[in-house]
């Protein structure tokens, strides 16, 4: 699993709609509204690097209201707790 953290600047008056549209994209697992110099943080989880380009460049960047994005690829996760619970099927 490859994780990308995408910082999103959006039109201020459209942040909730932009966040919902991004959250609906396949490959996007979470979207957070945040304080600071960016408006939203989207977590993209896909199986290969080409899929990151598909999600971010081909879809997320084209959501109406998105002004700019900055994508960071995660190298290593130091805590699996949240990921394991998020993807658990409850079959234990």
Report on the structure:
- It is a single chain.
- The chain is an alpha+beta fold and 92 residues long.
- The protein has a single domain (2-86), classed as Alpha-Beta Plaits.
- 25% of the residues lie in helices and 33% in strands.
- It is built from three helices and four strands; from the N terminus they run E-H-E-E-H-E-H.
- The longest helix has 9 residues, at 15-23.
- The model has no long low-confidence stretch (mean pLDDT 90).
Write the layout of secondary structure elements.
Blueprint lengths: L1 E9 L4 H9 L4 E6 L6 E7 L2 H8 L9 E8 L7 H6 L6
Question: In the residues, how many domains can be counted?
Answer: 1
Enter the CATH topology name: Alpha-Beta Plaits
The largest pleated sheet is described as:
4 strands, antiparallel
| Overall form | globular
Beta-strand segment tally: 4
* C-alpha Rg (nearest Å): 14 Å
CATH architecture: 2-Layer Sandwich
Number of helices: 3
């Amino acid at each position: 699993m490859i994780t990308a953290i995408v910082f999103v600047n959006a039109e201020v008056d459209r942040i909730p709609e932009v966040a919902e549209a991004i959250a609906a994209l396949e490959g996007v697992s979470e979207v957070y509204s945040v304080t600071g110099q960016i408006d939203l943080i989207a977590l993209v989880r896909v199986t290969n690097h080409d899929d990151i380009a598909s999600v971010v460049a081909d879809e997320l960047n084209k959501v109406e209201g998105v002004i700019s994005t900055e994508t960071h690829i995660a190298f290593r996760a130091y805590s699996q707790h949240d990921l394991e619970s998020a993807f658990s099927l409850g079959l234990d």
